[in-house]
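thread: overnight batch results

M.L. [08:02]
morning all. the overnight job finished for the chain we discussed friday. pasting input first so we're all looking at the same thing
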Amino acid sequence: MTDILSTQRKKATLPPDAVLDKLIHDPSPEILTAVAADARLSEDLALALLNRRDLPREALEELSRNGTVAKMRKVRLAVVMHPQTPRHVSVPTIRHLYVFELMQIALLPTVAADVKRTAEDVLINKLATISAGERFTLAKRSYGRVAGAMLTDKEDRIVQAALMNPQMTEALIVRALKQDAGTELLAPAVSRHQKWFHRNEIKAALLGNKNTPFARVVQIAADLPLQALRDVLTHGRIAANVKVYLSGMMNKRTGRSS
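M.L. [08:03]
and the structure it wrote out:
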């Protein structure tokens, strides 16, 4: 190894005549680390190096500090997505990625949970600054907390796309409906939705949302079990007129059942 690596410095370096496109396939962790740190490394060679699942953590650290190549979009993304990348490298790098790169990370099952969560956090924070077309694509394809964030968008087609997202869940919709703001489009949309409207947890959340059309409030109050209505009246934050109506409905139904 000493005929390839210079050991006179604290950080191993390659000689000027080293052939990088050969060395990226070397089995030695030390040589791979030196290749990753080499200033001659091109984008193509860096990506080829990152295709190695056995790349040592030290090489990934060196690559993340390797001048111009470390700032290239494809290289940054590949570094974040590599399973051996240390968290102190991948997490800060995530903040420099573009929207659909963040979505790619969030959708990839092999990405570590904490890295995925960071990508989701950054993506959610960027929603207010990205185009409607990008948000529409996110509404259709994202999942988890990102999909839930799309439910309170200001464009109806985006809200509708989020509701149709195959990864959408009842819990995400209930959580969104319980927010104080941003449900002007969501509540009416859910109250008309063939898939989601008929679920009792969602009906209860709709009763507690001021943007639910009153005609739907009437229908929900007639459909929900008495105990569910009691829970809404006791624990829900509901409009005064809805509270009056539900109280009257409760009295009538209790009277009929007595």
